[in-house]
């Protein structure tokens, strides 16, 4: 007899966890799909049915498409800004020979460990009417009245950019493994100026990392709720904020479910197009 | 100048990006000592009043207590369910193992916003919303996949020979697990417990869907507070949360380091 259980019977060990995931993930997701085919009665109460009414109503409403464009635009801006800011920092972390390299990497990803509500509060103190930026602008005489930097799209974009950056930096750092320093040295020793070495050697070599990091952060941005909601101050209308409002404030569950599934469809279509395009770019 | 190493331009740029990335957290720390009644930066005076008021705020204190209870239950259950599952995935060789691994990964791939909504619709008829069991089940959906993934890697790197040796010497399977496998996997177990605690404690979106008037986690109470008014009390609370997170991260680092040292 072997005391190590036969590997087949080991499968039983995974049973409780698998049942739990089926119970609190698979079953609710099926329920979400079913809910989107219910109807909302004239009083606003939910009616059990099987119809495409909610889908037709949602897709025929201009507001849905406005929300979709807002979400895509905000995610595009924040993700691109996170890439532009994160790339030099990731390159620095990849190249530095400082003995504090480990600590510097931890500092760059540490904001992930701090609750998003805390960081939103920090941005309110920096960007608010009586915040740090407006203090500097007024003290220096550049402005006589505070500039509105929060409770609008600007605030939401800045906060979202910051919240994406740790993920972007991690993705870039993981992808920089392919960067071969000897190629950069060769380019430099052949007399190429630094910027030319960067655009001709470093940037093309890190393209796969850039494409992957951008995609990861875009998906995160499209589903972000807390940061754009609080820094947008209820004036930034996104798919994410609308799903929550329909579920909790209006209590129109069929519409909330249809919007959530619609968001997943938009994301899936985007992922498909993006990976087809990026395969072309890299070829 | 060569294309290698971090040049001065890159260093300056990196410093600026660090300033952008870390400024919200640093400013929260400064403003927690503010004497003002609004968010004003720089503060016009310093005081500890917001720390004092924080402990007298019933909703935030109740939220803190509620979140701690949930996070402890979630970490215990995540390990109890996730560790055996990870062991099966790492050491087992059965049909459907790939499918099982994918099932455990699936919830991570789904936005928590969609998951939160699905759980709300599913739990409402079962009267599980705004209850401890409901929130625990919702959080498990997030923590269990992470624990399974972390521990699968940890078990996969354990050599089979040690367990086989213990078995050959006549130890029954449960004793092999208790005396050999689990002690060897201890660093991973501690890290997984800490991670599920932090993930549950910080979870905001799922909790927003599943919380109710008398059962709200701390992040939910914080979101409501920041939506309603803007005074430095949340900053004082934030500093305590950052300090708590640091203590957990450092403690795990020390414990895991020490355990590893003893293990060798």
Report the mean per-residue pLDDT of chain A as an integer.
90
Assembly of the depicted chains: heterodimer
Any idea of the CATH class of the largest domain in chain B? Mainly Alpha
Going across the major beta sheet of chain A, what is the strand order?
Answer: 1-2
Q: Major sheet of chain B: size, sense and barrel closure?
A: none
Low-confidence stretches of chain A: none
* Secondary structure: number of strands of chain A: 2
Q: What is the total number of structural domains of chain B?
A: 2
What's the arrangement of secondary structure elements?
The complex is a heterodimer of chains A (283) and B (264).
Chain A: H1 15-35, E1 39-40, E2 46-47, H2 53-59, H3 62-95, H4 101-109, H5 116-127, H6 132-139, H7 153-175, H8 181-189, H9 194-205, H10 207-222, H11 226-232, H12 239-249, H13 253-282
Helix pairs in contact in A: 3-7, 3-10, 5-7, 5-11, 7-10, 7-11, 8-9, 10-13, 12-13
Chain B: H1 8-31, H2 49-54, H3 58-91, H4 97-109, H5 112-123, H6 132-156, H7 160-168, H8 173-184, H9 186-202, H10 205-210, H11 218-228, H12 233-263
Commentary on this structure:
The complex is a heterodimer of chains A (283) and B (264). With 283 residues, chain A is mainly α. In chain A, strands 1-2 form a two-stranded antiparallel ribbon. The longest helix of chain B is centred in the N-terminal third of the chain and has 34 residues. The mean pLDDT of chain B is 89. With 264 residues, chain B is an all-alpha fold. The interface between A and B is large, with 92 and 96 residues.
In short:
The complex is a heterodimer of chains A (283) and B (264). By secondary structure, chain A is mainly alpha-helical. Chain A is 70% helix and 1% strand.
């Amino acid at each position: 007899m072997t005391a190590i259980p036969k590997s087949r019977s080991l499968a039983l060990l995974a049973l409780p966890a698998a049942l739990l995931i089926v119970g609190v993930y698979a079953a609710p997701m099926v329920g979400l799909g079913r809910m989107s085919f219910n109807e909302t009665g004239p009083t606003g109460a939910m009616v059990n049915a099987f119809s495409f009414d909610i889908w037709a109503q949602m897709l025929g409403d201009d507001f849905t498409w406005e929300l979709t464009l807002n979400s895509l635009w905000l995610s595009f801006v924040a993700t691109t800004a996170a890439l532009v800011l994160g790339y030099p920092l990731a390159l620095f972390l990849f190249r530095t020979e400082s003995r504090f390299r480990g600590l510097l990497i931890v500092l760059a990803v540490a904001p992930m460990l701090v609750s998003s509500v805390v960081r939103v509060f920090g941005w309110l103190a920096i960007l608010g009417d009586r915040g740090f930026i407006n203090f500097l602008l007024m003290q220096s005489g550049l402005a006589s009245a505070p500039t509105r930097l929060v409770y609008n799209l600007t605030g939401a974009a800045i906060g979202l950019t910051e919240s994406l950056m740790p993920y972007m930096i991690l993705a870039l750092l993981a992808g920089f493994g392919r960067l071969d320093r000897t190629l950069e040295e060769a380019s430099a020793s052949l007399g190429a100026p630094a910027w030319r070495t960067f655009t001709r050697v470093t940037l093309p070599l890190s393209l796969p990392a850039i494409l992957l990091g951008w995609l990861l952060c875009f998906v995160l941005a499209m589903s972000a709720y807390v940061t754009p909601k609080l820094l947008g101050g209820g004036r930034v209308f996104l798919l994410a904020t609308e799903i929550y409002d329909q579920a909790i404030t209006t209590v129109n569950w069929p519409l909330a479910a249809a919007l959530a599934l619609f968001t997943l469809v938009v994301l899936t279509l985007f992922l498909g197009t993006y990976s087809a395009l990026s395969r072309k770019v890299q070829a | 100048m060569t294309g290698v190493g971090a040049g001065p331009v890159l260093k300056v740029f990196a410093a600026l990006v660090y300033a952008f990335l870390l400024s919200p957290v640093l400013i929260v720390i400064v403003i927690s000592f503010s004497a003002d009644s609004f968010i004003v930066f720089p503060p016009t005076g310093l005081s500890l009043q917001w720390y004092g008021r924080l402990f007298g705020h019933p909703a935030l204190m109740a939220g803190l207590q509620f979140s701690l209870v949930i996070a402890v239950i979630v970490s215990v259950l995540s390990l109890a369910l996730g560790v055996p599952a990870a062991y099966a995935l790492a050491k087992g060789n059965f049909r459907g193992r790939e499918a099982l691994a994918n099932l455990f990964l699936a919830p991570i791939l789904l936005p928590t916003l969609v998951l939160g909504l699905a759980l709300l619709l599913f739990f409402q008829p079962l009267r599980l919303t705004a209850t401890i069991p409901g929130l625990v089940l919702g959080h498990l959906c997030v923590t269990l996949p992470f624990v399974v993934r972390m521990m699968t890697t940890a078990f996969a790197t354990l050599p089979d020979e040690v367990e086989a040796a213990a078995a050959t010497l006549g130890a029954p399977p449960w004793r092999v697990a208790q005396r050999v496998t689990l002690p060897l996997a201890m660093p991973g177990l501690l890290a997984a417990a800490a991670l599920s605690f932090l993930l549950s404690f910080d979870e905001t979106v799922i909790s927003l869907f599943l919380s109710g008037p008398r059962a709200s986690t701390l992040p939910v109470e914080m979101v409501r507070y920041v939506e309603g008014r803007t005074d430095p009390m949340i900053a004082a609370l934030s500093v305590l949360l950052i300090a708590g997170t640091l203590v957990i991260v450092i403690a795990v680092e020390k414990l895991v380091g020490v355990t590893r040292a003893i293990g060798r």
